[in-house]
Amino acid sequence: MNFTKIVYLFLFFFGISVFGQRDSVIAKPLSQYPQELLKVDEFGNKYYYDENQKARIYEINGETVVAMDELVLVNKPKFNNQLDKNYYYFLNKKLYRVYPLFVTALQQYRDIQKEMTDLDSKAKRKYVRDRQSMLADQYEKQLRDLTTTEGQVFAKLMNRATDKSVFEIIKELRGGFNAFWWNLKGKMADIDLKDRYNPRKNRTDEFLESLLQSNWNSGYLQPYPGASTFKSPK
To answer: What's the pTM?
Structure first.
């Protein structure tokens, strides 16, 4: 069943992002990087920080030295059978498709929170309505093909990043009745918008967490701001 109607509510969040891939670290001599972008570490050494590769580029005794950010190593979950393993890799494909939309949605949501801080209730409603209308025409076509599974992944990622369910976000931005209605719509598409992200207790969430950490470590996906602060509920 198509997830379009539920995701449509997030049109005022969405945009398109592109994430690079890497097989190995690529580094140039420090002198070849823009000098205005160089930083100084706690020991007084100059370096260039490569955001894409999550690495500091130094030059020590004429040699280029790369210091990678700390990686979080996560073992793949134990698969009970081949079907379990197939689902894991199926979920990875869905994550690749949803992740760019999620990252942009998260940034848009955070921006909206900041921009609405000093607005009264009436101004907030108008702001959200205008923003939704503006982006709906631009992104609706790109959202029509999202499947139920992709919608589930999106909802889980939003909860991981904000500690709020999609239901709570809708309620915050559109009011309680809208949140109730769209939760019913979600259940009709086998998606509970009140569902929480818990890798300790939910098998799908365990797979997602493993895939996130693996893709972040390998550089296939870039961590969203604040990704490392997540702590799994007990």
So the answer is: 0.66
